[in-house]
Every structure is written in C-alpha cells, then in structure tokens.
Specification:
- The complex is a heterotrimer of chains A (316), B (291) and C (353).
- Chain A is mostly helical and 316 residues long.
- Chain A has helices spanning 2-44, 46-52, 55-58, 72-103, 106-121, 124-151, 157-160, 170-194, 198-206, 211-239, 243-249, 266-273, 282-312.
- The radius of gyration of chain A is 25 Å and the shape is flat.
- Chain A starts with a helix and ends with a helix.
- In chain B, α5 (109-122) crosses α7 (146-171).
- Chain C has helices spanning 5-32, 46-60, 71-79, 94-100, 130-137, 147-152, 173-185, 187-192, 209-219, 229-234, 254-262, 300-315, 317-322, 330-342, 347-352; strands spanning 36-41, 63-67, 85-88, 102-116, 127-128, 164-168, 205-207, 223-228, 238-239, 241-243, 249-250, 288-296.
- In chain C, β10 and β11 form a beta hairpin.
- The relative contact order of chain C is 0.17.
- The chains are: A mainly alpha (316), B mainly alpha (291), C alpha/beta (353).
- Chains A and B meet through α1, α4, α5, α6 and α8 of A and α1, α2, α4, α5 and α6 of B.
Amino acid sequence: MSLKQSAYQSEKKIIPYLFSSLMWCGGALILLIFLGLIFELCWQGRQAFSAFGFHFITSTTWNPGNQEFSAGTALIGTLVSSFIGVILALPLSFGCAYCLNELLPQRIARYITAATQLLAAIPSIILGMWGFFILVPLMAHYVQPFLKHLFGPVPYLDLLFSGGTFGVGILTAGLILAIMITPFITAIMQEAFANTPTMLKESAYSLGATKWEVMHQVILPWVQKGVVGGVVLGWGRALGETMAVTFVIGNAHHVSWSLFMPTNTIASLIALEFSESAAGSLKMSSLMALGAVLMVISFFVLFCSQLLLKQVLKSR
Amino acid sequence: MAHLHNKLQGRSPHLMRWRFIKNHCMTVFAFFTILIMLCILISILATLIINGLSGLSLFTLTHMTAPQGLPGGLLNPILGSLIQVGLATLIAIPLGIMGGIFLAECSNKKLSAVIRFIADMMMSVPSILIGLFVYILLVMTFGYSAFAGSCSLAVLALPVIARTTEEALNMVPSAIHEAGFALGAPKWKVILWVCLPAARGGVITGILLAISRIAGETAPLLFTSLGNSDWSWNIFKPMASLPLTIYQYADSADDTWIQLAWTAALVITIFVLCLNLIARIYVDRRRKKDQ
Amino acid sequence: MSLFHTKHLRMVSVIGLSFAFFAVVLPSAHAQDTATVTGVGSSFAAPLYQNWAASALKDINLKVNYQPLGSSAGQNQIIAKTVNFGALDMSTSVEQLSQANLVQFPTAIGGIAVVVNIPGIKENKLRLTGDLIADIYAGKITKWNDPRIVAMNKDLALSAIDIAPIYRADGSGTTQVFTSYLSKESEGWKKSFGSNTSIAWPTGMGGRGNGSVASMVKNMEGGIGYVEYAYALQNHLNTAQLKNLAGEFVSINEDTIQAAAKAADWIHARNYSIDLIDMKGDDSWPIVSTTYVLIPAFNKDSKEVTKFFQWGFSHGDEIASKLHYVPLPIVVKEKIAKTWEYAGVSSTDAKTK
C-alpha cells in the first residue's frame, strides 16, 4: 500500500513537472527558431558584411567572377516588384471585400469567399508556372505593347515603359504577386469589415446613406488600421515570395527605370545562386547576408502589420 | 458619422443624383474586381486541368521520373512529397500543440503575448529564409536529406498549428475546464484529456491547413532535400518531391517534361484544394453545430 | 479515472504507431541503398549521365542520382564533399585539384549551339559570327534587322524585332566555354567582360540551366541563346550557322563537332584539360567543349562512381552518339582507367571488396 502510495506521489510530482516543462519547450521553441533565424543569417553573412561594409546594400554590382557582390539590385527589385504588387492588389482586394461583405447576399458571398480563399491556397510555384506559360505571352503580345503605345509619348513616364517587350520583368512579377496577395488582403479586410458594430452601420443606413457612403464614411474610418495592417501584411508576404517570382522576373543583374526590364529579387537571387555557392565562400556569405537583409525588411513590415491588426481583429 | 449626418440633411436633387451615381460606380467596380479574381482562378484551374489531365494516367502514377527523352512518370516525386510532408506533420503536430498549450495556458501573460506575436510573424516569414536556416543548421553538417526538408516544412507548419491550437483551446468553455478541476484532476490532465479533446475540431482544422500550406512549398526544399531522380527510402539521403520536380521540369524546353510538370502541378493542386475544402467544410459544420 | 482511460489509450496508440513508423522506416532505409551515388553539376552533360544512369541500373545495379544544378555547383559541392561526384564543363586547375584531393577525368565531348527565335526564319538559315554575337550580348546590336546582321544574311527577310539575349543566370561551364569563344572572337568582349562561369552581363535575361535557356528562347520572340546541342535538337530550336576559324559558315551537327574533336591533343594535355574552341579545319564547329567529372581520390564511394563511368565508357557510346555527344577516343578511355587506378578509385577494386 505504502509502495503504491509513494509511486502515486512521485507520479504526481513528475508528470506535472514534465508536462509544464514540455509546454515551456513548445513555447520556447517558437521563440528560439525565430531568434535563431535572425541570428544565424546575420552570423553567416558576417563575412560579406565585413568585406563590403555598408557598400553591400548601396552598390549594384554582382560579379561572381571578380568576387564582387552586393544587395542593391536585388533590393530594388524586391521593393519595386512588391510595391507594384501591393498597388495592384489594394483596389482589387478592397473591391472584393466590399462586394463580398456588403453587396452580395450572404448565400452567394459564402461560395465566392471560398473561391477567393482557394486562390490563396494554390501553391506559389503553380502560380509561377501559370505566369510563365500564360501571363508572359499575354504581357509580351498585348499588355506591354499597349502600355508602350499609351505612355510612349508622355515625357518621363515613357522611361518606365521603355525597352523590349519580352513579357518577363518586374511588372509581370508585380502582377503575379498581386494575384498572390489579393486573397490574403481580402480575407483580412473582410474580417475587419465584419467587426464593425452593426449598430453603427444600421444607424447610417437609417439616415438614408447609400451602401458606398456607409462603406466610405462609417466602416472604413472604423477599421482603418485593420485595412492598413492587412495591406502591410500582404506586402510582407510579397517581399519574400520566391517561386512565383523566379519564373517571370528574368534573373538579370541590372537596375533600370523600365518596368519591362528583367531584374532580380532577393529571394529569387538566393534560390538561383545558392546551389552553386561553396560553403564558406564569400558568395555563400553574401547570399546569407542577402537573406539577413530580407529578414530585417520582412521583420519590420510584419511587425508593423501585426501591431496594426492586433488592435482591430478580435481573434488576434 | 456626424459629417455624414450633416451631408444628408441638405438633400438637393443634384446632390442626391451624384450620391447615387457614385454608389453605382463603386458597386460596378466592386463586382468588376470580383469578376477579375474569379477569372484568374478559373484560368489557373482550367490551364491546370487542360494541360495536366492528359498526363494523369496510370503510367505516370506508377513510373519513376526518367531522363529527358525517355518515358517517365511521377511516382518518386509523389511518394517523396507524401513522406516529407508526412514526416514534417509528425514533427510539427506535437511541437505545435505544445506551443499552443503554452500560449493558451501560460501564466506569464507578457511572455505568452510576445511569443504569440512572434508566431503570428513567423506565419509570414519568407519560406526561403526558413530553408536557409535549416540549411545552416542541418545540411551544412549532415548533407542534403529528406529529413532536413521535412524539418524546414515542420518549421513552416509549427506556428500555424500552435496558433490554431491556442485559439481552439481558448474557445473551450470555462465550465468544462472547471468541471475537470472540480473532479480533482491536476492541471495537466485537465488540459490533455479534457480541453484538448474538446478543442479537437479546431486543432484538426489547423493541422489540415498547415499541411495544405506546406504541401506546395518549394523554396525550403531547394536547399534541404535537393531532389532525386530516382527512388530512395532513406530519409537521410536526398529525396524527390513534387514541387522540386515542377521547378525543374517547368523550366525545361522539353514538351514531355512540361507535360509532366503540369500533371504534377495538377496533383498538388488537387491535394491542396481537397485539404482546404475538407478543413472548410469541417469548420462550417462545427459552426452550424454550435449554433 | 476510467473516464479518461479510452482517450488515454488512443493517444498512446497514436504515439506508438508513429514511433513504429520510424522504427520500421529508418533501419530499412539504411540497409537498402548502399549502391546509390549522388552527382551534381553541369546541365550540359545531364542528358548523357541521366540516360546512362537509366541503362546502367539494369546492368550494374547502381543507382545514380544526377541533379543538373550547373557546373559551379558541381565544383563547389564536390569540394565541400556534399555529393559523390561533381560534373563540370571546364577543367579545374591542378592546384585546386590537389588542394581538395580530387581526380578529374573527361567523359564526353559536345558542341554548344547558338539558338534563335525569329518568326519567319527557317531552321538553321541565320548566319552569325562570333563578333556579331559578342556585340548582341554586349547590347550594341538591339534589333534583328541591324545592318550588320542583314549584311551577312541578304537572302533572309529580317524584321525590326527586339533582340532578347538570353544567358545562363547560374554559374555554368557552358557560359565559360561560350564566353571564352566570344573573347577569342572579339577583343572588345575580352576587355570588358572576359570569360568565366558567370559574368556581369550588360543586358538580357537569365535562365537556370540549359533547359531554362532553351525554354526561354523557345517562348520569347526575338530571343537568342546558347545551349548544348542535345538541348537544341530535342527541343526543336532554331540553330544558327557560325563562321569558323577557316572562314566557312558551318551548321552544328555530329560531323562538325567530330571534326573539331579530332584536332584535340590529348597526349600533352595535363589532367585532360584541353581547349576545343575555334579548332582548325574547314568544317569544324567553333564552340566545342569537353565535359569533366570530379571525384575525391582514395575514397570508397568514388569507386562506385568510377564503376558507373566505366560502364558508360564501355557500353555507353551508342547512347552518347544518339544524344549527339562525341564519345572519347579509346586511347583516352584507357588513360582514364590508369588514372583511376593511380588515384585508388578504380572500380575493379570495388568488385573484390
């Protein structure tokens, strides 16, 4: 009896201890992975940072033959392509969220919401493949010549739309990114819109406001931060997208004003050059440093978006 | 609101017409955006089906990949993907649930808030960076392996599972929680055998969504599992996977390879969309039950 | 307590099953594939190695996993010893070889085709010179109806299409060979860009691997690119004629590649490193290259690798010719066998072990 009692006692002591320590491990693991991710990338990139200094970010040369590496071109490509993506995605997702939440009857909206969410579930490599085989010829034959025709005579703007119309390039990459992030932003906007108190909306309707006026002057001011947060989160996603972009960006190390020119993003450059960089080489270190730069940018963007979203969405 | 009120007070017919025109314009615009998104979705699915379906034969599903010029299938990438995603899920589920319990039950609110914030950020961290991270940790010392690939996928799945588990645990009515304590059960028993089973639905949904997220991931595998043109059971050796096969095949000029890439894309998409649909139907059904 | 019992059981069984899964999978995994070798590198030689691997599997029961990630990848990863062999299109210097304790040997000879996509131009009709190609890749010629191109192709109707120069974005032996050809042909190119596995291209866009370049040229109107001949042929790309050292315009085919390969001086080549660019002869194709394999010396796994290539040398010539590579001469193959023995990686030892 006493033996059994003591076994019970020890079980009573050990298992809760084991359980809580396991639980702490689970929490700590998330923290450790995140900190480890930042630390390891910076640590592995130290060789490049010390070799090139601040020049690593500002310079645009990438010449493996002469052991010259820099993040400039890829950084500009990343920022510009994701910016184009956000600019295109913003009206699209706002329109979708407005339509799904306020205009369509619930029964139909449910199915269309599911459909837009299916678009978000499609793996990015498939989007990239679709982009390369469907979108690129479309861009080369119709969209780019049209844009060139449209903006060709306009001074300054013609710079943006100059060069050969090959279909690949930063504009196409931005378009694919827009398609990718629109469902995300739409989902967050929908959630934010739905969180607006019904009473506010209904009192506006009772004043005789139109649907757009309710959207524009009641809902939007109420969920402002959520909408901005959603857009910023979408931007964060676009920054690090690899596969969808690699197929259509053109993989070239030049910076130019033209949106038609092939260029590079940080993620696509890493994916491309990684396999051929020797461990311990300056090139590998430069790629890790590129990763660190991308991590820092995404960190700030995601940080801002989470701060903004936290205040609006109850579930977060 | 006050502004709106003022505006609606003076109702000149001119203003009224302008307001309705603006409303109609925005409605048309909104429907137009929906139409664009639906068109894109349909275009993607149609391209996949038109190009991929013709290659989806018994031969494709039962033969290994072959070098250019020889007839080949997709057996090893399909099995490789299943094994790597399965292994990643097996790694991520216990860790993710542990993390979720921590987030929901930790008494140190400040710490759990920080970790919750980080988990939310990790869901959107570029997957390629997670590939680099696992490369540094595992591949640099042990070489390319399917196991390293699974680890990188598990890192991607971990925050998703942790957060959904937490949310599901928070939804469990406190009455159930307290009933467990009233019976004299210790905290760990209440959480494991009362709260977790009660939150089962949410956790499973989270797991399904996590799997559908990692099934199509390519970037992390690129640095970790390398790809394999042949079949290998050894998870400590490079292994083929569908996304990597697509990455290689779609980028060739060989017609049969492109055909296979489309087929592989179709297989992944069907898998991912099915998981998503199941998760969604599950959520809907539970919601109905709750109501 | 019994209330929780069934749940308990189920949980335990799930955990137990997952452990059982590992317990079954892991050991069986270890036992199974002792005879697998992994190689990484040149996409130039990928069709050859992958086809050899498919046939060799039946004959010598050896699995070869070859990933065409580019020659630089092959070189780097074999130095880092993350793979069993690396494949390159350029020879590695003696210092590097001895430093990393590697053995180098050639496997086959192939030609690099210049491929174009110009609507309305028939197969293999366009004539180009190295000088012109250098100017196209330098961004000095941007339209297909440039007077200098038209002067060489008076019989063709060239329209004002933008030229899209397409290159290898990854480090590639094909690029090394191609740019050394351009450097030989054009002083200006040599001065500003030189030759390397990847260079600072002033214009154009990049693809990953021979396959990707072929695919981009195929899909992009106005495109020009350089790929291994087998890729051009398998993918039905439009090749261009080039002017060789003798001043003749030649088209790429087995005969012209063979003609260039014949002039190679294997006897005096150290570590088999020979240069096959711009060889003499009226019908020599100007851009021809040898493709090499690197393996670690005195290494057990290397024996499996040489077993595979021994098979390739003795049984694989037919496959090589079918894929439009030129097999190595018998003399060279014998020399390679001696090199293997000398480096302690000969497969004949592998059989007795």
